[in-house]
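User: Can you fold this complex?
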Amino acid sequence: AQRVTQPEKLLSVFKGAPVELKCNYSYSGSPELFWYVQYSRQRLQLLLRHISRESIKGFTADLNKGETSFHLKKPFAQEEDSAMYYCALTDRGSTLGRLYFGRGTQLTVWP
Amino acid sequence: NAGVTQTPKFRVLKTGQSMTLLCAQDMNHEYMYWYRQDPGMGLRLIHYSVGEGTTAKGEVPDGYNVSRLKKQNFLLGLESAAPSQTSVYFCATGQITGELFFGEGSRLTVL
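Assistant: Here's the predicted assembly.
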């Protein structure tokens, strides 16, 4: 059963425009949600996690338990934001530390 | 401090050949994971380990074996490679907190 759904494979915006990458999840346990990013020719790295409630590189994401969503937002996209973004989920009640990933959204920010 | 290192980074195999991918970490993490990344499929967990001497199956374990004889190393083996195993393989390490640290990836082509 797909636990994490990213409905958009590709997303394109112009520089300076707002951007929202969608993530919905389905999980009955105690989920913790993450966004990971993979820039061209670089390794995957953590962008942010919902429990920290931080803003990283201008991105924010709010966990909406009612809508089971964890959308990633940035008010003004930059060209350097172009990358593959993965939403991921882990069960806080599990000792396995496993992450379940969505299929990813490729964001392109045009100049 | 190299973090997570994967070798080799590129490999071309013929159908039926065998090979081993090595993941080495110097972060003293208990948890180690092997994922494969395919276009449109995101990252799928192959096998993982929650400590030295332990291994467990992930979502797509068929055709792969793993070993964790030392805490710092996690080996992924393909006994008889198939074209369907053409992919980019990522090793990751972490603790129970859910944040994973990834290697740079190993691109495998099976002809």
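Chain A has no helices and eleven strands. The two ends of chain A are 39 Å apart (CA to CA).
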